[in-house]
Amino acid sequence: MEVKNKYVSIKANINGAPEESDFEVKVENISLLVESESKEVVVKNLFVSIDPYQINRMKSQSSSQAAISFAAAITPGEAIDTYGVGRVLVSHRPDFKKDDLVAGLLTWGEYTIVKEGSLLNKLDQDQSFPLSYHVGVFGFSGLAAYGGFFEVCKPKPGEKVFVSAASGSIGHLVGQYAKLLGCYVVGSAGSQEKVKLLKETLGFEDAFNYKQETDLKSALKRCFPQGIDVYFDNVGGKMLEAAVANMNSFGRVAICGVISEYTNASTRAAPEMLDIVYKRITIQGFLAADLMKVYADFLSKTIEYLKAGKLKAIEDVSQGVESIPSAFIGLFNGDNIGKKIVKVADE
Ligand SMILES: NC(=O)c1ccc[n+]([C@@H]2O[C@H](COP(=O)([O-])OP(=O)(O)OC[C@H]3O[C@@H](n4cnc5c(N)ncnc54)[C@H](OP(=O)(O)O)[C@@H]3O)[C@@H](O)[C@H]2O)c1
């Protein structure tokens, strides 16, 4: 038996800002007959993650592509892998049964044939949370936020914390974890609506719209008259330069991502290196995949905070495979608030 699988691919490498015309929705036939000794699992995709790092995989060349397998180059015309949640349709493996809910490396499409060795975990679905939470707050976005903040930034209660792209998937969680620890938290975001959300709904002490600031160093000086102890960087470029200029001695900077540089390399900027030396600042990049050692702690604390109403997981969900290109393009235009997810099929 066969099903038609609709999936998204790129027509050619993308070396600037992505546009709708760079993508196509293709249709292929997938066989649901899996040989009894095969370790392949056929999954019907339900929710798929939309993430900025995919743009670096779509380029003809990026230093990230050789660094780790999940960042490998995407081949034009082929299905694009992504983290997601789905339901098992066919499996002869003892660890996955038909109708099991799973999270793992799926595709920007309706179905995925998950090969042996590829990331796939059975979900013990806690009915009190939406299934989509396993893509965002319980997935790599949540782990990057929690692990990046607590393990890399090593924050202490009362410290002054700055988060960029603060209303995004990772940023809105980092700010809330910092508030829960008892830090003073300021976020930057790209619209007044986002600034209002950070201050009025998520409890940040302050927030500013970076698009309306003529001088980022002054904006940060205004928000942090006593300096920044911790900077959780999602954007890089000029914001990193401005943040370092406002850091206190022994400040810590966690580089989660540098989205402002992904579609335009000319926006790269460098912090004042004398500040790094004389203020003894630590700057550390990290990958969520390195933080699995804190996964159990992250999950139990996050579930506890969500159940107690102390943490809000904001999602921005689009519908259907056809919406994937615009959902992805929107990340670079600031369209999303919270975790960007595409719902591919009903549960
Ligand atoms: N290290 C890891 O393991 C890891 C894991 C996941 C993600 N990341 C990285 O973490 C960062 C955030 O990812 P996310 O998944 O949470 O995405 P996200 O923040 O939900 O989405 C992207 C947001 O970035 C902002 N943005 C876009 N272009 C920008 C620019 N030129 N300058 C400043 N802000 C810009 C936009 O918000 P505004 O309206 O505020 O501009 C947009 O909504 C990205 O750099 C990503 O690559 C790292």
From TrEMBL:
Residues 16-342 form the Enoyl reductase (ER) domain. SMART domains: PKS_ER. Coiled coil: none annotated. Pfam families: ADH_N_2, ADH_zinc_N. The keyword Oxidoreductase applies. The keyword Oxidoreductase applies. It comes from the Eukaryota. Keywords: Oxidoreductase. Signal peptide: none annotated. This is Enoyl reductase (ER) domain-containing protein. It comes from Datura stramonium. The lineage of its organism: Eukaryota, Viridiplantae, Streptophyta, Embryophyta, Tracheophyta.
